[in-house]
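Duplicate of earlier report; Pyrroline-5-carboxylate reductase input re-posted below.
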Amino acid sequence: MTVVAVLGAGKIGELVLSGLLRAGWPADKLLVTTRRSTRGEELHERYGIRAVDNATAVAEADVLAIAVKPQDAGALLAEIGATVPAGKLIVSLCAGLPTSFFAARLPEGTPVVRVMTNTPALVDEAMTAISAGPHATGDHLAVAEEMFKPLGATIRVPESQQDAVTALSGSGPAYFYLLVEAMVDAGILLGLPRQVAHDLIVQTAIGSAVMLRDSGEHPVKLREAVTSPAGTTISAIRELENHGVRAALLAALEAARDRAREIAAQSA
Ligand SMILES: NC(=O)C1=CN([C@@H]2O[C@H](COP(=O)(O)OP(=O)(O)OC[C@H]3O[C@@H](n4cnc5c(N)ncnc54)[C@H](O)[C@@H]3O)[C@@H](O)[C@H]2O)C=CC1
Ligand SMILES: O=C(O)[C@@H]1CCC=N1
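Output:
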């Protein structure tokens, strides 16, 4: 069975490892590398996986999943790049970095797949977009899918779309959490106890999300069904439009996409 090493076990690296274990990936087919040895020991105790150094991971794993910050990827590749044997699959989880960044620092012919997942992987509800980079075949994409399908939904996209994907689904959970946080505050403004406001809006978010996924209806239809003539909802929507929420979202996602491009430019 494929041995996967996660290089850099912060939030996303741990989330991938824990998801693979939940899906039944044997612990002895997983390796992790960390910058601090105490972090490696912690992960070993928590999951029973071996924490090794980057050189051991390169030697023993079939797939190297790069989960360091994009700003740290250059240093990591300077350390391991020349030693990566032919045929190892590189799966990058790094926002912004194009697969050409990896190809330029790895032996010629090394297959690279670029992946953008998100934190709901923690509850097996991730959205993961997968793109083939240099030398990546259908079989390599299938390996990436085997890793990420148990963590939620997967989609294949051309790499040219990955910065937009990062802005939408990679960062997306943060936008929903911000909205929920703001709506809880609004509930408090209206006089509700914090816990009641929290419970009301979290269940409303879950119900709305399930309807978005399962009803087959366009979001406009779902919103119209809530919006009674001369009712309460349209009064709220007028305020949202007056305050430019729609325009703010367009600008926000454009800013996230631009930041992904900037990260790539700064790393080149
Ligand atoms: N946090 C998120 O929601 C998402 C993050 N990503 C991407 O995942 C990657 C990781 O992000 P986070 O987990 O949020 O960052 P993080 O900072 O929590 O984790 C990165 C880890 O890499 C370790 N590290 C750095 N250099 C290393 C080296 N040479 N050898 C071994 N370990 C090393 C650091 O000590 C740290 O624990 C980033 O590239 C980010 O763009 C992708 C999708 C979503
Ligand atoms: O904020 C970031 O850069 C990472 C990438 C997508 C989500 N978090």
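The pocket of A1CAB (ligand 2) is lined by residues 95, 166, 170-171 (CB under 6 Å).

Merging into the original ticket.
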